[in-house]
């Protein structure tokens, strides 16, 4: 069923809270399950992806209760997981598949991870290779894709020194979680900064982990202790409303309790360079994560160059930044985002194709795109390609387009932001 959005009929105005951060929600469930004692997670994201992680640990014997806006986990400790009766179905969640690969590499039972059609075509060799270097018995289809089979090893895993070949927080996290079951100290070298939620949370739960320059060091003898966690609002989810308020005249928006982790808040810096009127205030730290309120007002945007120095921390926001660039004055050049080809869809291609249907001027590059701003987009029939971030970006584009836009496959927003359209309809007045 198509969603119909009529553009140019209102402004973005008022206050809102976006759902809890998806990355932090996943990690709090994983680490809370491996901790000793009780972990209480407040304001978690309850979406299809996060539920996959919850179901996976329930299958392995962890007692997890979902109560309104809280998750209560009775952790089993590092060695308390049990062999699941069936395959673990990761659905569409790359975070579930890749991070669980690290956890399961240290278990004394065999497990197989499967996923839906989209996830089954996303590269998993990036975690298979380093985990094998640690001694894990792990294989995948064609040694690259799901299903992944993980068997117990005869000896304990070994810590490694590993240079990340791709900027991937999921790969980094898989190695760190496997290190919980390893001897000695792991060193991970990342030349391009990626989100550091796993490092922050492991430290919060009691791990001996530190960063020196571009290297992350983690000792393996780390029993985890249950904690109370508040999950801040997801800045990736907030980005759609931030761009909408920036583009639509008369807009004035306040978003409360948003995570502003410096490895995630690149969207704010990029939009400010484009001329956006954004203030971050009421800044504080909650369970090792910086949190703040964000005020956005309409302002004309201009094109800029976005390169490798920041793309690693805005990779999920590139589709909505493409919308902003399509209506900015001048040219925006986005480079070094090849990683977008391996998401739920090839996001370079899909966002370019769909925005071009609406009149955007976009040149697709092997590693990015060049976007020449236009005065106005035009409503038409567009397709989400089953990708939640494409669906939400196109919904914001529809608000600033002439006439009606029909979005096919908008339901996929449930993967990360189930009440996206409820909040959007309340703010767009």
Condensed summary:
This protein is of the alpha/beta class and 429 residues long. It is 30% helix and 29% strand. The chain folds into two domains: 3-20 and 232-427, UDP-n-acetylglucosamine1-carboxyvinyl-transferase, Chain (Alpha-beta prism); 22-230, Enolpyruvate transferase domain (UDP-n-acetylglucosamine1-carboxyvinyl-transferase, Chain, Alpha-beta prism).
What report would you give on this structure?
The structure is a single chain. The chain has 429 residues and is an alpha/beta fold. It folds into 2 domains: 3-20 and 232-427, Alpha-beta prism (UDP-n-acetylglucosamine1-carboxyvinyl-transferase, Chain); 22-230, UDP-n-acetylglucosamine1-carboxyvinyl-transferase, Chain. It contains 13 helices and 27 strands. The chain has helices at residues 22-34, 48-59, 94-104, 125-133, 169-179, 197-204, 235-247, 266-273, 308-311, 318-326, 347-357, 388-399, 420-427, and strands at residues 3-6, 13-16, 36-42, 63-67, 70-76, 88-89, 111-114, 137-141, 145-151, 157-158, 161-163, 182-183, 185-189, 209-212, 215-219, 228-230, 252-259, 277-286, 289-297, 305-306, 331-334, 361-365, 368-372, 377-378, 381-383, 401-402, 404-408. Strands 2-17-19-18 form a 4-stranded mixed β-sheet. It has a 4-stranded mixed β-sheet with strand order 4-5-3-16, with helices on one face. Helix 3 (94-104) links the parallel strand 6 (88-89) and strand 7 (111-114). The longest helix is centred in the N-terminal third of the chain and has 13 residues, at 22-34. It starts with a strand and ends with a helix. The model has no long low-confidence stretch (mean pLDDT 96).
């Amino acid at each position: 069923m198509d969603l119909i959005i009529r553009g140019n009929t209102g402004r973005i105005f008022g206050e809102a809270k976006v759902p809890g951060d998806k990355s932090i929600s996943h990690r709090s469930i994983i680490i809370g399950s491996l901790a000793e004692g009780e972990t209480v997670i407040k304001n978690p994201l309850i979406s299809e992806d996060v539920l996959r992680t919850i179901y996976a640990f329930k299958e392995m014997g962890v007692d997890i209760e979902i109560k309104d806006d809280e998750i209560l986990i009775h952790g089993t400790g590092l060695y308390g997981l049990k062999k699941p009766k069936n395959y673990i179905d990761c659905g569409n969640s790359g975070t579930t598949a890749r991070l669980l690969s690290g956890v399961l590499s240290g278990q004394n039972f065999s497990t197989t991870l499967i996923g839906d059609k989209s996830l089954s075509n996303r590269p998993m060799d990036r975690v298979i290779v380093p985990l094998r270097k640690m001694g894990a018995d792990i294989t995948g289809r064609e040694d690259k894709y799901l299903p992944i089979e993980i068997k117990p090893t005869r000896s304990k895993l070994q810590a490694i020194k590993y240079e990340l070949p791709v900027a991937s927080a999921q790969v980094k996290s898989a190695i760190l979680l496997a290190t919980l079951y390893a001897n000695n100290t792991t060193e991970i070298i990342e030349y391009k900064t990626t989100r550091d939620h796993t490092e922050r949370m492991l430290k919060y739960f009691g791990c001996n982990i530190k960063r020196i320059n571009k290297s992350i060091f983690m000792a393996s003898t780390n029993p985890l202790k249950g904690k109370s966690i508040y999950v801040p609002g997801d800045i990736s989810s907030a980005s759609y409303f931030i761009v909408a308020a920036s583009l639509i005249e008369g807009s004035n928006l306040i978003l409360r309790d948003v995570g502003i982790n410096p490895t995630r808040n690149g969207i704010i810096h990029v939009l400010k360079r484009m001329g956006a009127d954004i203030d971050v205030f009421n800044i504080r730290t909650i369970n090792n994560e910086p949190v703040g309120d964000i005020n956005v007002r309409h302002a004309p945007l201009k094109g800029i160059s976005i390169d490798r120095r920041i793309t690693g921390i805005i990779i999920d926001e590139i589709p909505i930044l493409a919308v902003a660039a399509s209506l900015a004055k001048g040219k925006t050049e986005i480079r070094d985002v090849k990683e977008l080809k391996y998401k739920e869809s090839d996001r370079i291609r899909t966002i370019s194709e769909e925005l071009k249907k609406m009149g955007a001027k976009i040149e697709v590059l092997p590693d990015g795109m060049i976007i020449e701003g236009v005065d106005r987009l035009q409503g038409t029939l567009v397709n989400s390609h089953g990708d939640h971030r494409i669906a939400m970006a196109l919904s914001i584009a529809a608000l600033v387009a002439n006439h009606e836009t029909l979005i096919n496959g908008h339901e996929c927003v449930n993967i990360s932001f189930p009440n996206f359209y409820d909040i959007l309809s309340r703010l767009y007045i």
